[in-house]
Amino acid sequence: MKDKIISLINSIPKKENLRIVAIVGSGASVASGMKTFRGKDGLYEGKKAEDLASRRGFSQDPQLVWNWYRERISNVLSADPNPIHYAIVKLEEMGLLSVLITQNVDGLHRRAGQQKVIEIHGNILQTHCFDNCGKTGKMDTVPEIVPIKCECGSFQRPSVVWFGESLNFENLQNAEKYLKEAAMVLIIGTSGYVYPVAQFPIFAKYQGNAKLIEFNTQESMFKSVNDLFIEGPAEETFPEFVDILLETIY
Predict the structure, then answer these.
(1) Same domain membership, residue 130 and residue 114
(2) Per the residue annotation, which of 85, 109, 121, 128 is the catalytic one?
């Protein structure tokens, strides 16, 4: 595998000025102990996640939704960044990473020291007004009293993208810009089923001629477009890849 990695890197023109975009999914947080937050039969208090993570669900029962998020926030705050997070930080520190696009809302990349991050689905440790009065907040502990009241009289809600909501337009524009310029896209721990992120690697390949390298425990929807698939736990394979990349370039 090392020879294949080196060969792919050497096939990129001006590899010393390499522009890399990393696209990260939930598989990257598994090694940090992140859990799924659905109970038996995929329900929480008789509700599906799709019913809770929505404006309608929050309007109907903000207390229930916040109770669900309290469990998620507790898990996030008890987790630590893992070798994947730190390996991506290393790429940024070496000047090779243009941006990290993460589907995860746990904020672990920032806690690892990442600066160039697009949190495409938001951040669970941040809040904003449900009625969009402009008030925002941050959490570094699990909120004791929920739902959190907003100064305007409404409630604060987690700053994550809910079902039925559109992604932030500025984030999408920035992602497109970096993907067009990328010479290499690293796909880490994502299944490729969630749109529009599932289209990002394909866009980078055919709009910017980027090389696609996927790190996962099994092949995903990107199988037909990958230039290289590296199988195994990404917390092991990805840091090894970064070391080989740096050795080859420098």
Answers:
(1) no
(2) 121
